[in-house]
Automatic annotation (TrEMBL):
Lineage: Eukaryota, Viridiplantae, Streptophyta, Embryophyta, Tracheophyta
Protein name as annotated: gibberellin 2beta-dioxygenase
UniProt keyword terms in alphabetical order: Dioxygenase, Iron, Metal-binding, Oxidoreductase
GO biological process: gibberellin metabolic process
SUPFAM superfamilies referenced in this protein's UniProt entry, alphabetically: Clavaminate synthase-like (SSF51197)
EC number(s) stated in the UniProt entry for this protein: 1.14.11.13
Main EC class the enzyme belongs to: oxidoreductase
Length: 347
């Protein structure tokens, strides 16, 4: 297994601390009062669990009940879990094993060998303070590159598993997006199929190494997702937390479930009916954590408008949204997101 210096997170974090003389390593805590973060361990919660076999039922009432549960969770929580989702435990297990082999590779190989479209990243290069640092490493790969054999180097078996995994996650994401669109009586429930392209949908492979620092250290800083929706496959270590009723709650891992959360674009499109909720990952000082996330994103020139009027947000393209997020992160060290695109309420 990689050590705490692989990737060089400890040295990077120490250097960031030195650049902030008002913060000492002994007193540092990433808890942010501005986010109403609990200074004690947050309560553990069980997200709504939805059995997707109901969507395939021959009984119309069962199909309607399942769809209603998906939409209710998207409105009340912005997060939910799905079981009987159609992705086999064998495929999930293969994905986890292949991911482990990839991340166990020495840091120099991951950083310099152009693996997975040269998408390897660690920490947070844009961080301007310790509270913006992420104790993690990841590969963030567009679906168009997953079918390219040259991406995998010696990890030939990873390529086949990733292609099968991405295809299964894509089908599931589009099914869920269709349910959410139909619930709002949208005239074209296939809109997500037409606008979401392989060039902009991503798989992100995550590893959160053991962290010897504060137990409140961020594995991934608080954020919302800049997509329509995200599907997460995680191990049983735990560490995912979300903001619920202005308090952080810890998500209890469910071995049989995938986690689904609403992204910024779906909140804007639904006119705030569905909620893109802030979430984060907290590190573990005993064991590393793995996850894989699938991001359902439209083409960069896709116009994001509201499915109903009056609209809460002005229309914008996905490319414009991504550009604004990058500018905010570069300028402020963190994402601003949807508030940038909110229409002013008339007096």
């Amino acid at each position: 297994m990689g050590s705490i210096s692989d990737p060089p997170l400890l040295s990077d974090f120490t250097q960031l601390l030195r650049s902030c003389p008002t913060v000492s390593s002994s007193s540092y805590s990433p808890s942010s009062p501005a986010l109403n973060a609990d200074v004690v361990t947050p309560r553990e919660c069980e997200l709504p669990v939805i059995d997707l076999s109901g969507l395939r039922s021959e009984c119309e009432a069962e199909r309607r009940s399942c769809a209603a549960a998906i939409c209710r969770a998207s409105t009340e929580w912005g997060f939910f879990q799905v079981v009987n989702h159609g992705i086999s435990s064998e495929l999930l297990g293969e994905m986890r094993r292949e991911q482990g082999k990839l991340f166990e590779t020495p840091f120099e190989t991951k950083a310099r060998s152009a693996l997975l479209n040269n998408s390897y990243r660690w920490g947070n290069p844009a961080a301007t303070s310790p509270a913006q640092f992420s104790w993690s490493e990841a590969f963030h790969v567009p679906l168009t590159k997953i079918s390219d054999p040259s991406c995998y180097g010696p990890f030939i078996s990873l390529g086949g598993v990733m292609m099968e995994f991405a295809a299964a996650m894509s089908r599931l994401a589009r099914t869920l997006a269709g349910v959410l669109a139909e619930n709002l009586r949208h005239r074209d429930c296939s809109a997500f199929d037409e606008t979401c392209h392989e060039s902009t949908c991503f798989l992100r492979l995550n590893r959160y190494p053991v962290c010897p620092l504060s137990p409140e250290m961020f594995g991934l800083v608080p954020h919302t997702d800049s997509d329509f929706l995200t599907i997460l496959y995680q191990d049983q270590v735990g560490g995912l937390q979300l903001l619920k009723d202005s308090r952080w709650v810890a998500v209890k891992p469910n071995r049989d479930a995938l986690i689904v959360n609403i992204g910024d674009l779906l909140q804007a499109w639904s006119n705030d009916v569905y909620k893109s909720v802030e979430h984060k990952v907290i590190t573990n000082d005993q064991v590393e954590r793995y996850s894989v996330a699938y991001f359902l994103c439209p083409s960069y020139d896709s116009l994001i408008g509201s499915c109903r009027e009056p609209s809460v947000y002005r229309k914008f393209t996905f490319g414009e949204y991504r550009k604004q997020v990058r500018e905010d992160v570069k300028r402020n060290g963190h994402k601003v997101g949807l508030p940038r695109f909110k229409l002013q309420m008339s007096a």
